[in-house]
Amino acid sequence: MVTPDIARGSRALRCVVGAALALSLSGCFFARVNRNDPIDAASLAQLVPGTTTAQQAVELLGGPTLVVQLGDRSAYRYDHTVTKATGLLLGIFNVGHTDTREDRLWLFFDLEDRLTHVGTSLQSHRASYALPWEDLHDPERAQSADRERGLLPQESDG
Amino acid sequence: MTIRRTLAAGVVLLCTSCLSLRFDRDRVHQPIDEAAIGSLQPGHADLADVLDTLGAPTIVWPSLNGRVVMAYAWLDQCGLGLSVSATLHRSASARVRWDSEDLEIPAIVVELDPELRLQVVRRGLLRDLVPEPLEGNLEPDDVADSLRSLRG
Questions:
Q1: Contacts 24+ apart (CB under 8 A), B60-63
Q2: What pLDDT digit, counting tens, does each position of B121-147 carry?
Q3: Domain ranges for chain A
Q4: Which residues 4-33 in chain B show a CB within 8 A of chain A?
Q5: How far apart are CA B87 and CA B79, in angstroms?
Q6: Which structural domains are found in chain B, ordered by start?
Q7: Closest partner CB to B57 (pick from A81, A106, A132)
Q8: Which residues pair with B97 in a beta bridge?
Q9: Host H or E run for residue A23
Q10: Chain A nearest-CA residue for B31
């Protein structure tokens, strides 16, 4: 004969075993991968079109990751990539997300290897650990990240 | 009895992780703002305007007649996946995997004349916009490296 106490105990034991099983089968992970060195925003101010030469640019920034010959002109590419990966493991159902952002710099030189144009996109700091349904391209979120990196002035309290 | 066996088989499958479902999302770079693209007038804008408005391109390569072509690419893709694996022998295992993803990279391509004045702005998929083979000294491996970064 099964008494109410034994039945309650058995149900509680099943719950504990069920919860333990669910816990053992679930988990999460975070990973970060960096490629190349970050581009220093401060050193970009030292690049002056019409004045800076290719040699000076290389002394300042190091060797480019890619050089493209454009007829008489040439273009140097510098990049730094950050990938942040997030995963949620729920038994047999797994959710994964990766966010990859890049600092990218293109320097254009003329026939005499003198700098003519600079193209810059600094976004590696905007890479986020997030889940697939999160909005990562929200302008406020981007501005906040830019402010943390010092690309935008800090907000005043007033 | 059949229900119990089915449940037991399900538990075994779960515990051995031989069956898994995946939902993935990959986001690479930020999409280019349509309003910014619209502000670039072919025939009037030059390389400096393009770089100020769109930032640094993903790839640059020379085209015919001394033209310069630049591509801006990004990726935001979701995919479902199912994989089933089984141990066949102590030293052998098999895995079957199915993915719904088909890599399609949206891009904006701008073409500048030899005086670096904007001539054309094209939108579409990168694989349709980037010619094969490329002109100039750009090696296919260089382009592949640039594109590989898009996959994270």
A1: B60/A68, B60/A70, B60/A75, B60/A77, B60/A106, B61/A68, B61/A70, B61/B134, B61/B135, B61/B136, B61/B138, B61/B143, B62/A68, B62/A69, B62/A70, B62/A71, B62/B135, B62/B136, B62/B138, B63/B111, B63/B135
A2: 999 988 788 766 555 445 545 555 555
A3: 26-149
A4: 13-15, 17, 19-31
A5: 27
A6: 26-81+102-151 (3.30.1450.10)
A7: A106
A8: B83
A9: helix A4-25
A10: A137
Cα–Cα distance measured from residue A148 to residue B31, given in angstroms and rounded to the nearest whole number: 22
Residue with tokens 């051995």: B16
Provide the ipTM.
0.79
Q: Token digits for B143?
A: 């382009």
- Rounded Cα distance, B73 and B108, in Å: 7
A98 has pLDDT over 90: yes
Q: Which of the four pLDDT bands, split at 50, 70 and 90, describes residue B39?
A: very high
Question: Are the Cβ atoms of B152 and A98 closer than 8 angstroms?
Answer: yes
Considering CB atoms only, which of A102, A117, A126 is closest to B48? A117
Check: CB of residue A31 under 8 Å from CB of residue A90. Answer: no
For chain A, the residue count is: 158
Q: Per-residue pLDDT averaged across A27-39, rounded?
A: 92
B72 Cβ partners below 8 Å, 6+ apart?
B32, B54, B55, B57, B58, B107, B108, B109, B110
